[in-house]
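Task: sequence in, structure out. Protein: Iron-only hydrogenase maturation rSAM protein HydE.
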Amino acid sequence: MTQDLERILMKNDLSDEEIVTLLGLTDPEDCRKLQERAYALTTERMGPNVYLRGLIEVSNICTANCRYCGIRKSNQTVTRYTLDEDVIVGCALHAAEKGYGSIAVQAGERRDEKWIAFIERVLRRIHAETTSDALPNGLGVTLSLGEQTLEVYERWAEACGNPGGLRYLLRIESSNPTLFHALHSTPGRFEKILEHRYEALRNLRRAGYQVGTGVMIGLPGQTLEDLKNDIRTFQMLDADMIGMGPYITSLGADMTSEGMMQKTPLLQLAFNMIATTRLVMKDVNIATATALDTLDPNGRVGGILHGCNVVMPNITPQATRKSYQLYDNKAGTEVGAESNILMERKIVEMTGRTLGLNRLGSSLHWVRRAGVAPN
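Result:
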């Protein structure tokens, strides 16, 4: 494999068969070569910085019933909450003071006007109150608030007030229609349909966002061919950023009986997927997922070593973090915001990277398409 692998790793464009080969690597030496190539390409195309996105988990109230998720509507054991407007803005101010450059606003999925207007109002305040000499356009904002209409995306984009740091993460979870349906097959007011997901991603592009998507890795019934097709879907969508991680079961979900992969092979598969996505997509932002740390204490370090260039320290008030468990044993729920930024600094230093403080860290893929200066 070694000579063939070295040839594959140096190619600019990979075939479907070659992508499947890289995803399926298990030999430690082969995996090391893949990791080193992905890290080198990240340095070459993206530079040495790892960018911060301070994660604010605004609410765990959700109208959806996705079978894999711990905050699904039907989970009666979770304590529901929505953070106060002042608390959310306070988290954003903390991020700005610590040099994060950007935040990520995440919540369960809702589409009622009261919620839409609440988010709009919060975003206006965040922009107004974080504009400074260090951040002349305020914090960059990544929203992860599910499928909405084009009009809602446009309202939130205008409220963010920072078109150079405007991002939205809407994961597809799987591009395999059968798998997607199995993950979202519970009937409800907002039952998920894969084509609707794609239309929402197209609407995000129309509304001016840097568009992010991603999948779960190691799903029951998922194949290497499925993961290869996921990467091809990222290309088809012309994604600017990717957020993906290993599938981990949740006791509050509806899939525990289907089990999950053993931790060691699952972690390697996740690393292979990250590295291969970097080789194919080249200049997109890729976040190192907290779920990697749930599999291994140095999981996010491994993510950066395999091609990730974004970290997302949790700056949500500690009192509510245990109520935002999308999967079991989520890492980072026991430490406060101050400890998290120190942890991220340590993680980045361990990988030979530097923190891109007071930088929006926008996707270079988007920067080149938009014809603007890197920020």
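The chain has one domain: 48-259+308-369.
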